[in-house]
Please model this.
Amino acid sequence: MIASPAAASRNAVFDLRSDFLSPPTDAMKAAIAEALADASSFGLREDARQQALEARAAELLGKEDALLFPTCTMANLVAVMAQVRPGEVVLAEAESHVLVSEGGGASALGGALLRGLPGSDGAMNIGRLEHEFAAGSDAQRPAVALVVVENTHNRAGGAPLPLDHVDAVGQLAAARGVGVHLDGSRLFNAASALGVSARRLAEPATTVAISLNKGLCAPLGAILAGPRPVIREAERLRQMLGGGFRPTGAIAAAGLIALDEMPGRIGDDHHTARAMAARIAEVSGGAATVAKPPTNIVMVDLAAGGVTAAAVAEQLAGHGVLCLPFGHARLRLCLHRGIGPEAVEPVASAFAVVLGKTPRAPSLPRRDQPEPKV
Ligand SMILES: *Cc1c(COP(=O)(O)O)cnc(C)c1O
Model:
């Protein structure tokens, strides 16, 4: 691990640890300042900018209503709590964020029985999903109440789920009267990569959550969109969890610009990711395997070089490149608006230096040891 991330951050030139580090645009900063100068509002959905943001999000995602959240984790949790009773089953691909990175909230706070299904490139195995449905439910066997899909899929290296996969999940769930929740924290990355609208990708889903602060560059915020009765219940649950923050005007003002202006530029991050991946592969001299990134996430696999991700990340930090160990032998580099094409050469150079001198680990930790979850 990086000995002192705070100290490293101070000297860092390229912070690739997450796309939530994307800086807000000047237009966002101006809109925030303007909103802060206005009189604030009292009610949970009273603020005019929040209302405009929620209406715009509902329209963009093709749902009846939408609600502002502080985080996408809370939006996912509330989506589960609004659609699943304690003891009922939520199915998700085994490496999905809701299973791996949300503190077990859906179980701890929602009482949901989370069940991970095997998948490839973030897409759950459709045969296994059919099997889960076919098993049915009775007095002993708990019923499946919700299926969660994640698009793009974080731990699958930002893989966009193909439209026909999302449609297949939607059809199977609909045939059973079961809802689908789309964790679309990076839905606009998927839309850009697939050349399909976010609205179309969200069509098979009952509810959809998106982040405003990742590729869309707002400083904070997420949206949960869905049918009006679900969003009404979500408003109650959000308050219960402490997410009914106010005033919302400044965040909503930035969020509106995020929705209107940022999806159009998100493809730039994908270009930079591809260029960076190619250069890192070139300079690594076989010590790293770098797949072509489908969106904005570069995964550097260090298994071939026999060095640990933690050791490489620590040394890279010394060269002003911050990235995230993802398990023992993988590094995640997240591209965003704060990292342009000019970063490609310096980042690749840092890899060249570090991979040339990182001492070979005597033996890699066993794969069955706990992996850091992100
Ligand atoms: C980041 C992320 C979240 C959670 O977003 P926060 O706003 O940080 O809570 C949920 N799902 C996926 C796939 C993510 O990458």
